[in-house]
Design brief:
Radius of gyration: 28 Å
Oligomer: single chain
Strand content: under 5%
CATH class of one domain: Mainly Alpha
Largest sheet: none
Structural class: mainly alpha
Order of helices and strands: HHHHHHHHHHHHHHH
Shape: flat
CATH superfamily of one domain: MetI-like
CATH topology of one domain: MetI-like fold
């Protein structure tokens, strides 16, 4: 075997070649990462962009030109048709949906905060057993409860009513109670003790200390609740059959079957259904990113 002695210049050249090779590998890796992310973004955003473009086309253009062509002429007649009352009363569906989401949001936050505070800070027999028993209901698929809920609310005479849509969701959810309880437990006990020494009662501690200090998790739950129930489809479809109580998802789905030859107006309805959620994301994008971190690590 012949050993070749490496001079300093040779070692330097070899080191430079290694660094260049690693830099080239990192460059290709970065390029592949960006290509995958770009492909994912196009796949995710493509249907939304297609829906928006189609909503501004005339039915004639949509039927004669490529779906990817830009609107020419640009028209708002599809949106006007949604609110004219001749085809569908879409404005009423938006009002019903907004009322449903608002009632559920207020109810869920109120009851979840009260329950989470009790599980986190109050002492009573069986507290932890009751909490974990309640939390275990998260493992029950929501679809399993649809039939029993339907039968119960029908027996109570709440089928085809606004409260029939709202009642199953307006009380605290296990997920919200779990997140709030963990956040409440993270607040230093010394702050609560100091408030008690100053004469604050339980209600005052909850409303003046715990809730203000828990603003990030409450904002997170607010966003999650709005998005979840704005998109809720199955339960409103089952419990109501009246067009006057159609939420926006049910109204849009019924338009897809009723006007399947007029996709421009269906796409206008779909775009309107998405618009509030897009606006919420644009306004609260920082809180949404924080919410992902909070719900991931807690």
């Amino acid at each position: 075997m012949t050993l070749v002695e490496q001079t300093p210049d040779t070692r330097s050249a070899i080191g430079a070649m290694d660094r260049k090779g690693r830099a080239t590998s990192r460059g290709w890796g970065t390029l592949a990462t960006y290509a995958i992310l770009l492909g994912g973004a196009l796949i995710t955003l493509g249907p939304f962009a297609l829906s928006i473009i189609t909503s501004f086309k005339t039915p004639q253009q949509f039927s004669t030109e490529s779906p990817l062509s830009l609107p020419a002429p640009f028209t708002m007649q599809n949106y006007a048709g949604l609110f004219s009352g001749e085809l569908v009363d879409f404005g009423h569906s938006i009002i019903v949906t907004a009322g449903y989401v608002l009632v559920v949001l207020v109810g869920q936050l109120t009851f979840s905060i009260l329950a989470a505070f009790a599980f986190a800070r109050l002492r009573f027999p069986g507290r932890d057993v009751l909490f974990w028993l309640y939390l275990s209901t998260l493992m029950i698929p929501a679809v399993v409860t649809v039939v029993p809920l339907y039968l119960m609310l029908t027996e109570a005479g709440l089928r085809n009513t606004f409260w029939g849509i709202v009642l199953p969701y307006m009380f605290g959810s296990p997920y919200a109670i779990f997140l709030l309880r963990e956040y409440f437990r993270g607040i230093p006990e010394e702050i609560v003790d100091a408030a008690r020494i100053d004469g604050a009662g339980t209600w005052r501690i909850l409303t003046r200390i715990m809730v203000p200090l828990s603003r990030p998790i409450i904002v997170t739950l607010t966003i999650i609740t709005i998005v979840t129930h704005w998109n809720n489809f199955l339960w409103p479809l089952i419990i109501t059959g009246s067009p006057s109580l159609s939420v926006i998802t049910v109204a849009t789905a019924s338009m897809q079957s009723q006007y399947n030859g007029n996709w421009t107006i269906v796409m206008a309805a779909t775009t309107l259904a998405m618009a509030p959620l897009i606006i919420i994301f644009l306004i609260f994008n920082r809180q949404i990113v924080n919410s992902i971190a909070i719900t991931s690590f807690r």
